[in-house]
Amino acid sequence: MHRRHPRLGRVEQLRRNAGPLEQAIGIQPPPAHPGQRLLHEGDGNGALVGGGCTHQRLAGKKEWERAGWRAQDQGRGGPPFCCSAIVYAHRGACPPSGEGLPPDPKTQQEQERYMEIKDNVFVVTGGGSGLGAATAKMIVAAGGKVVLADVNKEAGDALAAELGASARFVATDVTDEASAKACFAAATELGTLRGLVNCAGVAPAEKVVGREGPHRLESFARTVSINLIGSFNMIRLAAEIMSKNEPNAGGERGVIVSTASVAAFDGQLGQAGYAASKGGVVAMTLPIARELCRSGIRVMTIAPGIMETPMLMGMPADVQESLGKMVPFPSRMGKPAEYAALVEHIFGNAYLNGEVIRLDGAIRMAAK
């Protein structure tokens, strides 16, 4: 003989006092299934003991108390979970995931409102190494296709071979219009271009007045040309292509992510050219986003702090350690995969637009 749970007799009371949430769950009277038993008890962490149910917590303590339940009914001191409520109201196993529950807020229709990586094509400049390589790996892992746009043929070919058929290396000089157009032509051969990630850049250090005289003008111009003008060159060409895409359910046609630097805000000695170029990337983000919104294209910029890029990783170990300790928390250099994770989030969050996000562990660079 099965044992009747003390709360099963209160189903009608639960029905009479149930709020909108409990009505949505659809509490049913206990069917007569002799021999079946109550299965689960909330473990306080959102999972349920005994059956592997992982339904989310749906209500707070007050909601369930209003429905005639007490927190101690769970035996764990926390408000009940959705599946626990159903278990209290019937005998037997939990229903299949989602059955009888309020709809998942990210249903298929809702999912279509977000920029999907899967089966779409993305161009990543500077894609042969560092932040660009990590981003390319993320895109392929998510089921997308990527064009590695880089001047470093050896690194680009090697990564393309590693990533397989979903990646293609195209030697690209972002400052050259013809080279950039060839890159996008290759991208459209792979499918629908849905995104651009600008990671190509240089970071020379040169003082305005050094031991050998004033800052070389050609060095300053080259830095601005690659970091700022090169980024804009790729943005304008990508935007033209993506503006012709069919929009998704949310009206989106594409996403553009550029890379600035904390130097745009906290430039150091010897960073006049670099800070100017990255400051330009920051400054053009909002006006471009405002213009391209009419085409359903979002524009974002990430300003990384001290990251594990090839340039910094080539420094002595003690210098790397010292740089990491400058970061408040976590006290280390940032990882390229963390940059890629933020890019992935930007792709999927349709409300992120026209903003610059600092990815820096709360660092604020000192004047010296």
List keywords for this structure.
368 residues, alpha/beta, Rossmann fold, seven-stranded parallel sheet, two-stranded antiparallel ribbon, 14 helices, 11 strands, 39% helix, 13% strand, disordered N terminus, (3S)-3-hydroxyacyl-CoA dehydrogenase (NAD+) activity
Write structural notes for this entry:
- With 368 residues, the protein is of the alpha/beta class.
- The protein has a domain of 245 residues: NAD(P)-binding Rossmann-like Domain (Rossmann fold, 3-Layer(aba) Sandwich).
- Helices cover 39% and strands 13% of the residues.
- It is built from 14 helices and eleven strands.
- The strands form three sheets. A seven-stranded parallel beta sheet has the order 5-4-3-6-9-10-11, with helices on both faces.
- Strand 7 and strand 8 form a beta hairpin.
- Helix 8 runs parallel beside helix 9.
- The longest helix is centred in the middle third of the chain and has 26 residues.
- It is globular.
- It starts with 10 loop residues before the first helix and ends in a 9-residue tail after the last strand.
- The relative contact order is 0.10.
- The N terminus is likely disordered.
